[in-house]
Amino acid sequence: MDKQTADQILQKNREKQQKKNEKERLRRQALGDEWKQRNKELQQAYRYREKIKLEEARAKQEEEIKKEVKKEVKKEVKKEVKKEVKKTEVKKEEEKPVVKIVKDTGKLISNYEKTGIKGLEEGTAKIYITRIRVVHRLLSKTELDVELLSKILLGKAKGGDEDKLLKNMEYLKDIDLLIKTIEEKYENLESRKSHLSSFMTLISYMDCLYKINYEKIRNNFDKVKNEILGIRGENKPKTKEGIIEDFDEEIIMENSEKIIVSGDRLIYQFYTLQPPRRLDDVSKIELIGEDYELDKLDVKKNYIVVDGNDKPKEIIYLHYKTKKVYGKQIIEIANKNLKESIQYHIKKQKLKIGDKLFQYKRSGDFGVAIKRIFTRIYLKPITLNDIRHSYITWELREQRTANYLKNLAMLMAHSPEEQQLYKRV
């Protein structure tokens, strides 16, 4: 079957399906039981024949896309200049893509304690308000003044706003009660730390409370933080942590064959054939052409650069958790299997410049998809956090150079110190 015939069959099937279904429904209502049984047998035979045709047509269509992608890969291989490279024990390290850093020249804003500048990003402020609201319900009978609280956290408060908020949140004057309430509510240390952090930032922004109560809540926060670091420093896996034992490329590609949906297959390879990034880093990735100007890109997005034939070149990370440390990151897509998979996905989904690489409206939905795909492959619950821990444990199974570890930390967008805590023993 040639490509033109395959396309015609698919098009014809789409146009007739709806009309045929309605027509058959009306006919079934008018016919008797005996004829219905005979008609059922005929319809089953017909559907089977049509199913075979459709499967052949779809197979032909996918075959054409794969041929086109493989043709591009072969062209790229032919253009490469072969060099004699002396084999060494650290050859694996040389094959890793290198992160290019483009530091912003503007002044970096630290916390209020160091600079006197108040104001969180909107997204962070919303998270803090959600945490504060939970504790507020435990300590106050009045409704939390979210609008006023938001003003102060965003650094937009005016004269008198702090006093008004203090009337709304009287318990802020009793820092010991606040800390005790958070401790009793949150047994989990990470949860306790995040809620203490939210109130600690708020208190640091309120001049009427800063000198009196900040030191107490800061000391408590540091105590919890150090306790967490002590536990994490043991590098022991958590009770329900799903560890992936092997990131060998051959095994990853074998596992990929078990995944039917191309989008799910790409997600699996995106988080295994290269150092896995945090959820928001990847969910924000959009397609962009090679003619981009770095300084004119939206700093609240991340991008994947593709050529005229949808071949991916590099990923640009502008918006991520540690951007103040690493700046703008430009990372070459080095793995050929991953490049081929991305190109196939773009063509299959008919994505265009400006479209998101992964079509999920919310990062939360994207996280659920990751867990679903990996859980199905490894037959145990696996989250993105598990994947990142597993990947570092796999990478650090051998002795590595300081430069290798530094580059790996940049690829995963966390600090070298954090990297050591990720390793499981």
Q: What is the strand arrangement across the widest sheet?
A: 1-5-4-3-2
Estimate percent helicity. 55-70%
The fold-level CATH name of the largest domain is hpI Integrase, Chain A
Number of helices: 19
| Low-confidence parts | 81-94, 105-110
H-E order: HHHEHHHHHHHHHHEEEHEHHHHH
Beginning-to-end CA distance, first to last residue: 55 Å
Write the topology of this structure.
Elements (H helix, E strand, L loop, with lengths): L2 H28 L2 H47 L11 H4 L4 E4 L9 H4 L6 H18 L6 H8 L7 H8 L6 H11 L3 H17 L1 H26 L16 H8 L5 H9 L8 H5 L1 E5 L12 E5 L5 E6 L5 H4 L1 E5 L3 H14 L13 H16 L5 H12 L6 H11 L3 H7 L3
Parallel strand pairs: 2-3
Antiparallel strand pairs: 1-5, 3-4, 4-5
Helix pairs in contact: 1-2, 2-15, 5-6, 5-9, 6-7, 9-10, 12-15, 12-16
